[in-house]
Amino acid sequence: MSAATADQLSLTFSALADPTRRAILELLSVREMAVTELAAPFNISLPAISRHLKVLARAGLIERTREAQVRPCTLNAAPLKDATQWMEHYRRHWEESFDRLDDYLRDLQAGQKSGKGAP
User: Fold this and answer.
1) What domains can you pick out in the chain, each with its CATH number?
2) What pLDDT score was predicted for residue 2?
3) pLDDT: is 75 or 119 the higher one?
């Protein structure tokens, strides 16, 4: 893994660590929204929403444009794909470990049923 990829993963996971930012991404997964629209469901100030949006933009998870007085935001899911691929490697590792544990437990139970004891 390159240093740039590692840094991007750090930015992505840091941005995803906050539940408000995850909720914002969920809203943007449906459609493009203006900052004031994004702020409506939350009980926090507009400047606080803007700070969350800056974190998401720095992580590359959203794109912000300017159309007259409106600043629409759109989801950019590419960094999420990279994070998913990184996690997938570890998911396979844990599944293999659990499969080995299942095999061991089956062998152990079979040995107890036949009176052999532990393998």
Assistant:
1) 3-114 (1.10.10.10)
2) 65
3) 75
